[in-house]
Amino acid sequence: MILTKPLGTGIILAGHMRGNTRAQWLIAAIESMRTTNATAAQIAMAHRPRAGTDVTGFGLAGHLHEMLEASDVAAVLRLDQIPALPGARALASHGIESTLAPDNRRLLGNTPETALLVDPQTSGGLLLGLPPSRAAECLQALRDAGLNAAIIGEIEPTHAGAGRIRLE
Question: Tens-digit pLDDT profile for the chain (168 aa)?
Fold first, then answer.
């Protein structure tokens, strides 16, 4: 699975409303929101993804869960590989979150490491599911285009009694 933009717009904007966001964090978030997904979508289509969606109000976890249910598979997310906007993790560690985050948390529970995953995004990136044989080449093309994309996890079979999203 590839994510084409860092997460954290909801956290950054919530922090800004509380007077806790540094100027450079807000500028980075605005720049991310101003970046369209057109280039990422063009590159992705050239690499034939099996699935894809934009990450918006339901956060990464919500949109990923919808994709997984539709395909009857599960996923493992590598938390240390998920890109975040500057300041997003720092603000989240102080409990700052968007007003939509509590509703999004229903899939993953309330733990500090899930803050970015449930953060609703404004003009978020694309979440792409590609076969491993095409993922690295797609990621390189996204990065060559100047996008802060990352491979954040992989798809796996569902297991009886297990949730659809596993965190590592």
Answer: 999 999 999 999 999 999 999 999 999 999 999 999 999 999 999 999 999 999 999 999 999 999 999 999 999 999 999 999 999 999 999 999 999 898 888 878 777 779 999 999 999 999 999 999 999 999 999 999 999 999 999 999 887 656 789 899
Which letter does DSSP use for residue 53 in this model? E
Whether the CB-CB separation of 43 and 132 falls below 8 Å is answered with: no
Instruction: Supply 79's token pair.
Output: 């938390």
Note whether 3 and 127 are within 8 A (CB): yes
Q: Give the 3-state secondary structure of residue 156.
A: strand
- Cα end-to-end distance, the chain, whole Å: 14
Residue 127 to residue 72: CA distance in whole angstroms: 17
Give the tokens for residue 95.
Answer: 């409990």
* Contacting residues for 8 by C-beta, under 8 A, at least 6 apart: 29, 84, 85, 87, 88, 89, 91, 92, 116, 119
Contact 25, 14 (CB under 8 A): no
- Residue 163's DSSP bridge partners are none
